Amino acid sequence: MLPSDESTAPSAPTVPPAQPASLEEIYRSPLEVAAKAELARAGTKGQVPASFGYKLSIGHQEIDRIVDEVESIYSSLLLTGTEWIGVGQIGNMLVQLNDWYEDYDEFEDACGGSFEEFLGTLPQSEIRRNEQDKPELKVLLPDPDAPPTLMTLRVEQSTDLWRVLFKSGAAAVRIPHLEFEIGADSKRRIDTVYNHINNAIWNLSSHMRGAQAEAGAEFTAEHIAILDTVEKLEALLDVNEPFIIVVDDPTGASRFKPDDGIEVDESDPTSIDQ
């Protein structure tokens, strides 16, 4: 059984080449550079990836704390009985209640654009315009009564990799034809499909480095299996042929955005082996 993704990647890795020539090359793989590289590649094909994909230059810890604060503020304001709350109101409260940013402009710089655009890319949020043409936010909070779900995405082109996946801490992400799994680790993760895979590549490479340090220069069967998996995962990012990604979430909280073409099964969320 190939190792699953368990470790945590840093917020600024480097991009691995398509066919690494050495372990040192495998270990270079920042998500930010990967996103920029994919943007450049997509640009040559006349394709434009989703904004969140290439604006995701801040660390995942910062994204998590922004999202956590947004949900906390929204939940507090929701007690007033208002389901749709002004985006500007939430943004100003976030800046005023924390000392993370000097002002609203710096906050939006961290978001990679306007706060409205940032919120609009998150799978658990909805944006609408009110009668004054001002943006309002509705957060889709976790439903404790939601049924388990099994979501299947068929990746057919590079733009599919720029869908944003909200992976709950209870969810596992599987790539059936590789028998590979990004396991549940109790941590929520919001990222593009591209970066979910690229993060797994980094984690496997990190595991490989630790395992080789213990075993010395000699390659073991485990090392060879990990290298093979890394190469196959890297190949997926080129989308030379379609492949399937399955998100198995017993809490039903995970979401894709956009979600067109996603098959959702709420009846019997078990693993898919073909």
UniProtKB/TrEMBL annotation:
Ranges for domain Zinc finger ZPR1-type: 111-258
GO cellular component, one term: nucleus
Organism of derivation: Chrysochromulina tobinii
Record lineage: Eukaryota, Haptista, Haptophyta, Prymnesiophyceae, Prymnesiales
Domain of life, source organism: Eukaryota
Stored Pfam families: jr-ZPR1
Keyword Zinc-finger: yes
Region of interest (Disordered), ranges: 1-21
Molecular function GO terms recorded: zinc ion binding
Family: Belongs to the ZPR1 family.
InterPro entries: Znf_ZPR1, ZPR1, ZPR1_A/B_dom, ZPR1_jr_dom
Entry keyword set: Metal-binding, Zinc, Zinc-finger
Protein name (record): Soh1-like protein
